[in-house]
TrEMBL record:
NCBIfam families: F420_Rv2161c. GO terms for molecular function: alkanesulfonate monooxygenase activity. Residues 18-225 form the Luciferase-like domain. Pfam families: Bac_luciferase. GO terms for biological process: alkanesulfonate catabolic process. InterPro entries: Lucif-like_OxRdtase_Rv2161c, Luciferase-like_dom, Luciferase-like_sf, SsuD_RutA_monooxygenase. Keywords: Flavoprotein, FMN, Monooxygenase, Oxidoreductase. This is Luciferase-like domain-containing protein. The keyword rRNA-binding does not apply. It comes from the Bacteria. It comes from Capillimicrobium parvum.
């Protein structure tokens, strides 16, 4: 099981390149950056966590700019989107950004995708929240066509283009891993339809493990399960390892170096205990 880090890259915190360099130097396997283009001031849609929404949600750097800085500052670290809101992005532009980042990083990019929870945010991008799942599927499928075909076409309800040329192509073949976020009742259907990995937020470990077993039973190809927002508790890590979870990711605070290093130390202590090194 691999151990990774999640981070909201904001202009008020340790900068993305410095975070990435620190995470790599301390031996972690991966780093995932969150994305929000903005947060509507109306705040009509409640945050799923049920608390006041943290300010970091509307102070993020652009996802791909931050990831490029992380790639440039490192040489081994896997870098990923945790998650990219493809329902708020043009698929042709996003396909080029993904392919460009994968090439510039030497094939180290992991493409976490999600449909989004904030209905006003989606509407500001011209997306109907009621059809966002279908839209996400078409945009991911269209990007796959662009990455894998010299002359790509896609014909769907929401995405439509005929015979386009787009380079570069990703280093990873056939494309970077698609990590499908979400914990809803139909998320496994989406993973099976177009994902390589199920990438849920941490919730009840027993329920996650049960659903992971269901996913494996339904799948006709290898599909990994990785979990983000995992607590720094060795017993949780041990349970996930025994269940075949392939990666666990811990969020760090969007803060200066001191608090970031302190949070890393707590995570590393839990990892060491899980690995029998404490």
């Amino acid at each position: 099981m691999d151990f990774g880090i999640g981070f909201f890259p904001t202009h008020t915190a340790l900068d993305p390149g410095a975070v990435a360099k620190l995470v790599e130097e301390r031996g972690h396997e991966s780093l995932f950056f969150a994305e929000h283009t903005h947060i509507p001031a109306s705040r009509e849609t409640p945050w799923p966590a049920g608390k006041p929404l943290p300010r970091k949600y509307w102070h993020c750097y652009d996802l791909f700019v931050a990831l490029t800085a992380a790639a440039a500052a490192t040489s081994r670290l896997r870098i990923g989107s945790g998650i990219c809101l493809v329902t708020e992005r043009d698929p042709i532009v996003t396909a080029k950004e993904v392919a460009s980042l994968d090439r510039l990083s030497g094939g180290r990019f992991e493409f976490g995708v999600g449909a989004g929870w904030n209905r006003e945010e989606l509407r500001n991008h011209g997306t109907d929240p009621r059809t966002r799942m279908a839209l996400m599927r078409e945009r991911v499928e269209a990007m796959k066509a662009i990455w894998t075909q010299d002359e790509a076409s896609y014909h769907g309800t929401f995405v439509e283009f005929e015979r386009i040329w787009s380079w570069p192509k990703p280093v990873q073949r056939p494309h970077p891993p698609i990590l499908v976020g979400g914990e809803g009742p139909t998320v496994l259907d989406r993973v099976l339809a177009y994902g390589d990995v199920w990438f849920p937020n941490f919730s009840d470990p027993g329920d996650l493990i049960r659903r992971a077993e269901e996913l494996r039973a339904r799948a006709d190809r290898p599909i990994e399960v990785q979990v983000i927002s995992v607590p720094a508790k060795a017993e949780v890590l041990e349970r996930f390892r025994e269940a075949g979870i392939t990666r666990v990711v811990r969020w760090l605070p969007s803060a200066s170096r001191g608090p970031v290093e302190q949070a890393l130390e707590r995570w590393e202590a839990a990892v060491a205990e899980c690995n029998g090194e404490a």
